[in-house]
Design a protein that fits this description.
It contains seven helices and two strands, in the order ββααααααα. The chain is mainly alpha-helical and 128 residues long. It folds into two domains: 33 residues; 68 residues, 434 Repressor (Amino-terminal Domain) (Orthogonal Bundle), CATH 1.10.260. It has a two-stranded antiparallel ribbon with strand order 1-2. Strand 1 and strand 2 form a beta hairpin. Helix 4 packs across helix 5 and helix 4 packs across helix 6.
Length: 128
């Protein structure tokens, strides 16, 4: 590889290299970052700090299903169980799941915590 080094005060300051070499180095750096991201994701899964989400859940929510209901069913909880854990009434949870009520931030936070999710995972973002 032909590289020209430019010095300032006796110290290397710039490296001039062929453009093709530059492009290869950029590509390799991006690949290295992808590998590091993959390794970090695998490590988070092994430490139970993250989980794989089945595509069926993603598609159901994307198709308009209520995220709380989708996640509740995925976690294997009945409405009564989730309501009890979240310290709300089963009818209130039912109304949230059917869209008749939106739920306060505190209630949604309790539901998210009970489902081991973040608030962002269960709040429906409406397009404006």
């Amino acid at each position: 590889m032909s590289v020209q080094i430019i010095e300032r005060d006796g110290q290397p300051e710039w490296a001039i290299l062929p453009y093709e070499t530059y492009l290869r180095l950029v590509e390799e750096a991006e690949m290295l970052q992808d590998i590091r991201d993959y390794d970090a994701a695998i490590a988070a899964l092994e430490r139970d700090e993250d989980e794989l989400i089945p595509s069926e859940l993603v598609y159901a929510i994307a198709d308009g299903a209520n995220p709380i209901k989708v996640w509740r069913e995925y976690r294997g909880l009945s409405q009564n169980q989730l309501a009890q854990i979240s310290e709300i009434s089963p009818p209130y949870l039912s109304q949230i799941e059917t869209g008749k009520r939106t739920g306060t931030t505190d209630v949604l936070g309790a539901i998210a915590k009970a489902l081991n999710l973040s608030l962002d995972d269960i709040v429906i973002k409406r397009e404006e």
